[in-house]
């Protein structure tokens, strides 16, 4: 059984998220998703929705076997607990594959690091980015 881990913020789900999770699930037989804690989302605006709500909605996607809110301080603690075979990085995730692989080796975790593929819009107006969904909400309803 090949156990795959995917991770991300997953605020305001869209088909880009679904594509990533399907891609990650196809890397193995079991998919666990680690949902980033609000306080750890520092590379962009913090999520609108609370940790548990983002976890609960991700867990409801059919290809996801389990979803959990991540560790507050050390992102490798859940990895040590889950002992996965593959970490599926999102196509645009800022994490460096080599740095993650080096840390896995240092902790004695035998796990491959792979990149998932991007999904581009398929029809006019399809929004595949939480940031762009929020921008459109502000543009169309921001005066309320
Ligand atoms: C292997 C791995 C494990 C992670 N584990 C955690 C974690 O335990 N807790 C957490 O808050 N974030 C965790 N993250 C998420 C990062 O902290 C970061 O916020 C996340 O990658 C944001 O992704 P996004 O820009 O795709 O939303 C993890 C990321 C990676 C690559
Ligand atoms: N269009 C997309 N195609 C493939 N993967 C995607 C797409 N959009 C998001 N993902 C993946 O989903 C995971 C979680 O993404 P995240 O929660 O950062 O959403 P986002 O829509 O990219 O957010 P933002 O617009 O705020 O940057 C990441 O691994 C990311 O690469």
TrEMBL record:
This is FAD synthase. GO terms for biological process: FAD biosynthetic process; FMN metabolic process. It holds the Pfam family CTP_transf_like. It catalyses: FMN + ATP + H(+) = FAD + diphosphate. Its cofactor is a divalent metal cation. Its EC number is 2.7.7.2. The gene is ribL. Pathway: Cofactor biosynthesis; FAD biosynthesis; FAD from FMN: step 1/1. Coiled coil: none annotated. One of its GO terms (molecular function) is ATP binding. Residues 5-135 form the Cytidyltransferase-like domain. HAMAP family: FAD_synth_arch. Keywords: ATP-binding, FAD, Flavoprotein, FMN, Nucleotide-binding, Nucleotidyltransferase, Transferase. ATP binds at residues 9-10, 14-17, 92. Belongs to the archaeal FAD synthase family. Catalyzes the transfer of the AMP portion of ATP to flavin mononucleotide (FMN) to produce flavin adenine dinucleotide (FAD) coenzyme. Homodimer. It comes from Halorussus aquaticus. The keyword Protease does not apply.
